[in-house]
Amino acid sequence: MTARAESLKERVLQGPRPAHVGIIMDGNGRWAESKGLPRLEGHREGAESVRAITTAAREVGIQALTLYAFSTQNWGRPRGEVLGLMDLLRTFLLQEKRTLLENDIRLCAIGETHRLPRRVRKALEEVEEASAGGRSMTLTLALSYGGQEEIVCAARELARRAKEGELDPEAIDVATFQGALWSGSLPPLDLCIRTSGENRVSNFLLWHMAYAEIVVAKELWPDFREEAFFAALLEYRQRERRFGLTSAQIRERSR
Ligand code: IPE
Ligand code: IPE
Ligand code: MG
After folding, report:
1. From the CA of 38, how far away is ligand 1's center (Å)?
2. Labelling 81: which of 116, 169, 228, 250 has CA 20 to 30 A away?
3. Which domain holds residue 203?
4. Cα angle 189, 230, 147; round to 5
């Protein structure tokens, strides 16, 4: 870690931190193209950022880290890129298993994971099972994930339960609906970081986006390391989260 990253980390540790951070890891392709490399090299370097940020998040006591690794819409990319990403994902899971266990981190996945190739599913299941007891941090990979798809799936599940007489439609509230989501057991999303300077959410955690603070970082994902991550956590600390109330009410409550 750079000296500047160390000093930012100290500052992060001195004050409140978000409990749940989500990251839209964007810019791998542009990183590679800017260096005249194939896009897959960008994804490979991006995997190094995943390692660095997972460790950094745990070290500053983030309870839940959710990483957008592959969207439902990403299936539409050229076949070679999709296959390359799947291979990288499998390698990453098998290589990281030990580090996750040593650091008491639990790995979970959300999304249409049945669409992943069998070899990836197997690696995923192996790491999920082995790390199920991890208590220091929950690392959730959004894989073959789409926020709209997640909401539709929850609606379908609730409709099915209502049709079978197990659920009164009038009793459906925010908590019931959230419970039917893939991401239903995650804590509220406090901070959503998107790298590569793009100002959009691209179908990530739509439900949880309700009151998330959004920080857009200019770095492309392969360049997004500890320094940029801690800077985003410090920017989050400057925000006043009002949840629909007035500033005066919020100040009164925090006294
Ligand atoms: C993010 O980087 C990784 C995935 C979406 C899988 P991109 O591959 O989207 O990189 P850019 O946005 O084209 O630079
Ligand atoms: C979002 O990035 C998906 C992931 C980071 C996995 P994209 O590159 O797919 O998003 P768009 O196409 O720029 O909106
Ligand atoms: Mg992109």
Report:
1. 12
2. 228
3. 18-147+187-253
4. 25
Residue 179 within any structural domain of the chain = no
Residue 214 lies inside a defined structural domain of this protein: yes
| Ligand nearest to the Cα of 67, by number | 2
Question: Hey, what amino acid is at 205?
Answer: L
192 in a structural domain: yes
Q: Which residues form the catalytic set?
A: 26, 74
For Cα atoms 20, 149, 167, give the angle at the middle one, nearest 5 degrees. 90
Task: Report the CATH number that the domain containing residue 25 is assigned in CATH.
Answer: 3.40.1180.10
Distance of CA 228 to the CA centre of its chain: 16
The C-alpha atoms of residue 234 and residue 7 are separated, in whole angstroms, by 12
Residues with CB under 6 A from ligand 1: 25-30, 70, 74, 85, 196, 221
Tokens 């690696």 locate to 123
Q: How many domains does the chain have?
A: 1
* pLDDT in single tens digits along all 255 residues of the chain: 899 999 999 999 999 999 999 999 999 999 999 999 999 999 999 999 999 999 999 999 999 999 999 999 999 999 999 999 999 999 999 999 999 999 999 999 999 999 999 999 999 999 999 999 999 999 999 999 999 999 999 999 999 999 999 999 999 999 999 999 999 999 999 999 999 999 999 999 999 999 999 999 999 999 999 999 999 999 999 999 999 999 999 999 988
CA distance 136 to 12: 18
Q: Which of 23, 24, 28, 193 to mutate to test the pocket of ligand 1 (most atoms within 8 A of CB)?
A: 28
Q: Which residue has the CA at smallest separation from atom 3 of ligand 1? A: 26
Pocket test for ligand 2, best of 74, 145, 199 (most atoms within 8 A of CB): 74
**Residue 224 domain-assigned (yes or no):** yes
Question: What is the 27 CA–ligand 1 centroid distance (Å)?
Answer: 5
